[in-house]
Each structure stands twice: as C-alpha cells, then as structure tokens.
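Field reference: sequence -> structure
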Amino acid sequence: MKKQIASTSAPQAVGPYSQAVAAGGLLFVSGQIPLDPETGKIVEGDIQAQAGRIFKNIGAILHEAGLDFSNVVSATVFLTDIGDFAAVNAVYAEYFKEGVLPARSAVQVCALPKQAKLEISCVAVQEQ
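Structure field:
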C-alpha cells in the first residue's frame, strides 16, 4: 500500500507527481529544485543559497511524514555544473553530519526544470 505525502511548507508539485510517496516502510521524496514555496519561483542567490532552500523543502516533506534527515538512507544530487559540487557538498554536510550517512550519487545534467542549477531527491526509511 502506498500513501501520498504533501506539505504546504514545500513547493507544490509542478507536474503529475507527488512531493513524496510512502510505501513499504520507505519514503520516496521527489526531486526538489530551489523553489520558494510561497512564490513558486527559484530563490535568488548563489548555489549554496539554492541548496539551502532545497534542504528546507526536503525537511518540510520529511517532517510531514514524521521523519527527519536522520531517516534519509539515499540521496541523488543533480547539478547543471559539476564545478558547483564542493559548494553544494558544504551545505549538504550541514544536514548530514553524524550517524550513518546516506548513500549518495551526484551527477551533472544538461538541464533541470525551470532552469534550476540543482535538484536533489532522496529516500528515507520509516522506523518500524
């Protein structure tokens, strides 16, 4: 059985998908771009400001499911410029700094929705 998870503190989906889906003891969080949930627009600022917004959005979705960043077991980072990896990694490390760190992939892509420079998706485990 699967359950849709939606938070009003994170941007609404910009297409036919859920912010997150809980199934089989896991929470699958859709890729988040740096959208301000109030305006629906990409936040201004450098890649670190954009990464911070993404993690706030992911945090809101996790919270809606009764979870937090310690529950995340896997993350995928999509960058339009792999040269931004170190700057994004610095922000990432603020959210994942102790315990068992998530498995992670980071890849450069040619384009992301709404001309975003960064997108992050993750999978979290729901404690049984």
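Note: Helices lie at 47-64, 85-95.
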